[in-house]
């Protein structure tokens, strides 16, 4: 009964928002947030949802020099992507605190831990045909720290760096994708057929793979921005076109501009298919543009920059007010800030240790001479 009430509330909220946009003459409900400041630059976020309740969620949490980003693209329902959005950052923080480091492997392990938790939830529901057991979610998560990007991906969302080199803007993909449109992925599935089939429990049969791929990237001087987006966006806009749009237009409203460009292409396809194929609706789209001003020295007083932007249950983008340390958002920000402090101290300690070792080596060599 409680689940039914939650579903009805989500549908009512979504329909009300949709009606307001229709009254304003808009074809789709575009949500966006712009000029969101973080330690080394600004963010622009935009999302449009074709499903109700929305299946796709975005999450950006930043404290000091650490920024966490996640896009969770649900399939056949919202339950799995909602669960991932609510739980994966906890797993990232737990694993990072335990290992006293941030890496792409920590992110990959967090995806695996989140998947295990969701499977336990499905088993506990004891309903093989229920909503929780028949849905899934793609997941792309990243951490930005200093001049590093750590990334883990399971599904077909993608991250691209825009690099301006030799007076030319180029797109640098950071991850591969998991779907059957990928030649490498088709070959991998064909080579490991037995591994992808579990006759005893079809509910937990991965369609492609349940193992995330992890990546680490060191930013270069001419890397200007990062675009992270779900498959619904990349299906209609190429990486080269996306980076050129970001490069050539003002920052304000840039994520919304990207979504609008992709939606216009999707709607042209939809309207051309509709007479013969019914509704060929565009997919949900989520885009995050992070401007890489990491080369700029942070201004005085900016060391304590905290932000949290996320999708609500009805698809709205919410910028949380950081006022309550006891809230889940406040807890995440506190732990992320503590993790950043620990990493900074470890970095200083390692640097001092190297200096001490060099001094000792010089002293030993001088003694030998």
From TrEMBL:
SMART domains reported in the protein's UniProt record: PP2Cc
Top EC class for this record: hydrolase
GO BP field: regulation of intracellular signal transduction
Highest rank taxon of the organism: Eukaryota
E.C. designation(s): 3.1.3.16
GO molecular function: protein serine/threonine phosphatase activity
Catalytic reactions of this protein: O-phospho-L-seryl-[protein] + H2O = L-seryl-[protein] + phosphate; O-phospho-L-threonyl-[protein] + H2O = L-threonyl-[protein] + phosphate
Keywords: Hydrolase, Protein phosphatase
Domain (PPM-type phosphatase): residue spans on this chain: 37-292
Alphabetized Pfam families for the sequence: PP2C
Presence of the UniProt keyword Transferase in the record: no
Protein name: protein-serine/threonine phosphatase
